[in-house]
Amino acid sequence: MYIGLTSTFHDLMEGYFAPANATAARLPKLLNFNYKFGEFLGIAVAKNEERELATMLLGQGLSQSVNPIALPYAGHQFGHFSPQLGDGRALLLGEIVAPDGARFDIQLKGSGPTPFSRGGDGKAAMGPVLREYLVSEAMAAMGVPTTRSLAAVATGDVVQRDRAHPGAVLTRVASSHIRVGTFQFFAAHFGVDHVVKLSNYTIWRHWPELAEAPNPHLAMLDRVIGLQCELIAHWMGVGFIHGVMNTDNVAVSGETLDYGPCAFMDRFAANTVFSSIDTHGRYAYGRQPQIMHWNMARFAEALLPAIHSVSPDDVEAAKALVDAIPARFRAHWDSRMRAKLGLAEGGADDRALVDDLFAELEMHSVDFTSFFRALAMLLRGDGARLEQLLPTPDAMAPWVARWWEHIESDGVSPLVRADTMDAVNPLYIPRNHIIEPALEAAEAGDMGPWRELLAVVQQPFVERPGLERFAEPGAIDAAPYRTFCGT
Q1: Quick one: DSSP state of residue 209?
Q2: Can 422 be counted among the known catalytic residues?
Q3: If you average pLDDT over residues 60-81, what whole number do you get?
Q4: Do strands 29-33 and 263-264 pair parallel, antiparallel, or not at all (unpaired)?
Q5: Burial class (CB within 10 angstroms; exposed 0-12, middle 13-18, buried 19+) of 317
Q6: What is the average per-residue pLDDT within 462-487?
C-alpha cells in the first residue's frame, strides 16, 4: 500500500526541526484504524493490508521520500516558562493533501525518543493512546475543532510507568502542529527573523488571505485569538476540561491539541479538576477562559517582533486585541449557551439567565450533559427526566419558569425548539466511569468494550435503545476521578 506524503514544513523551514526516526517495534499489531476518516484523507486500506499498515504507522518501512522530523517548542507550563521543550515522543512523518485540497500533518505519538526527549523513552502506553483516540473522535463527532485519530497500533513492547503497560503508537492528524510554544521557542532563542519566517509560513499554511492584510502578523494574531475564544466556549459547552492548558499545548489552528489529563464533567462544579498534576486548580473548568486569555497574551508577546517589523504602531493594536479577549469570549459563550438552551439570538436578559443557570446547577449538583437533554424533553411535555436529575422535583422551579418564558417569547413551536436543542446537546460523551474499564480491558487484550464505547460517542446526539447506561453519570459517592498525563 502507499500513502502519499509531502512535507512543506521540512522543505521550506530548514532550521525549525530536527531529523528523527522511529524505534523499531517488536510485534506490530493494528488495534484500530479509522476507515471513515481515512477515506476522507484519501487513504484506501484493504483488510489484507492491515499488517503492512501497522508497520508503516510505527514509522517502519517508509518510502525514501519521507523525511520524519521532530519539532522544537517552548512553553509556559503551569505559568512557568520552559525555554526548551519539543516533540519528545512524537514524529511528524509529513503532510497529506485530502481529495478536497485540505492539507494535514500525519504524526506518530509514542514512536520512540527524539532529540527533544530530555532523557525520556519516547514511548506511550496503550491506555493513554486509546484514551486520546476515543476522546478526540468524540470531540470531532460533537463538532469541536480537534486533532483527529487515524490509527492506534500496538508495538508488542512493554512501557514502564507506574507499572508495566503494553506499548502503542497513535497516528494523529492535525491541520498543523504549530503551537503557541513554537513561536515562543523561536522568539526566545533566535529573534525577529525566525519569528517572521514562522509567521509567514503559518499564514501561508492556514490563512493565505491574511497575506494581503496591511500587517499580516497582526491579522494572524486577531484570527488565532478568535479561534481560541470559539474553541474554549465549545469545550465548556460540552463540559470538557482540558487539564493542561500550557502554551505548548495550544495549536494556533484552533484545534484541541494534546489530550493528556482531560475529562468530561458529570455533576456541575465550576472548580472541577481531574488532572493529578493540577494541584492548585489552575486549569479548572471555570478558569479555562482566563487561562486562554493569558495564553493569548503570551502568543502576542512572541509575535510582537514580527508585528513591529511591519509597523511599530501596530504594537498598540496587538495590545488592544489582547485586552478585548474577555468580551470576544463572552460573545462566543453567549451564542453557545443560547443554542444549548433553545433561545433565539439576542434575547433580552439571556445573559442573566445563563449566569444564574450555572449557580443553580452547582447548588444542586446536576449532571451537566443530561440537564440540557432533559430540558428538551420538558418542551415535549415530559418532565420526568429533569425531576430525576434534581434533589427535589421543584429544586430549580423558578429558573425553569424564567427559561420557559424566554422560550415562549420566541414564538417558535416548543417541539421544533426541542429538536434544535438535541442537535447541539450531546447525549453520549466518554463518561469517566465507563472509559476507564474499557481502557483496562483493552490493555488486557479485550478491545470489545473500547470499540463499543467508540461507536456510541461517534453518534453523540442520536438516542438509541439499549445504550441508556452510556448516558448515565457515575455514582454520586464515587471517589474523586483523577487523570494523568499519558501520550
Answers
A1: G
A2: no
A3: 93
A4: unpaired
A5: middle
A6: 85
